[in-house]
Amino acid sequence: MSGVTPKSGGPVAAEKIADLAAASRILAAQGVVDGFGHVSMRHPSAPDRYLMARSIAPALVTPDDIIEYDLDSNPCNANGRNSFLERFIHGEIYKARAEIMSVVHSHSPSVIPFGLVGVPMRAMFHNAAFLAEGVPVFDIRERFGPTDMLVSDGAKGIALAGVMGGKSVALMRGHGSVACGPTLQTAVFRAIYTEVSARIQHWTMALAGGSPIAALDTEEGKLADVINRTAGMRAWDLWRTQVRSQVNW
What we know:
Helices cover 37% and strands 13% of the residues. It is built from six helices and seven strands.
């Protein structure tokens, strides 16, 4: 990190800032984040900047909590506000993948077990179609040995982004997961339905008793994901309306 405060990428529409703040509350309401976790959005007009809340519980985020960062995760306008230690997850994924416009990091409980055992996460139904492409597991100790498990600097963020590759979701052993997408709405949809699909997979594996599971295959996943990128806005509109009914933004 440099000692120089980077310049802002320019103003962002108040509506987009409000949507980003609402995304944090949506993820909390859906049980994907609790007191921990965060969601970010690439700056709409400056691809070398991104936006994310200050270090605060997701359910409490307001538009006034949003901070702008460069891709090295240096804040442009912190103004005394604390930043998340793991903001490097976001900055390094944005560096590595120009097509990604939003990133969610969470510790959703049904997902974590799949990073601890050799059972791959699968797309159990059409809303989780994006999982059919595969879900890699980032094990921080393979590169960094014993750590506090946090992606707290650029080197760890680069390693995570490298394991994630071009996938929509990556697991983090003993920690949580990352979901990303070409829009804020898609990233939130994917984070939520990763947790839902993981729950369904636990139930299905118990019911199957070792029998084959007819999860979506790769081609089915590609076809269904195309639909979800537009139809998924129906879910976003519901979730966003629910937040708007609680706040005045």
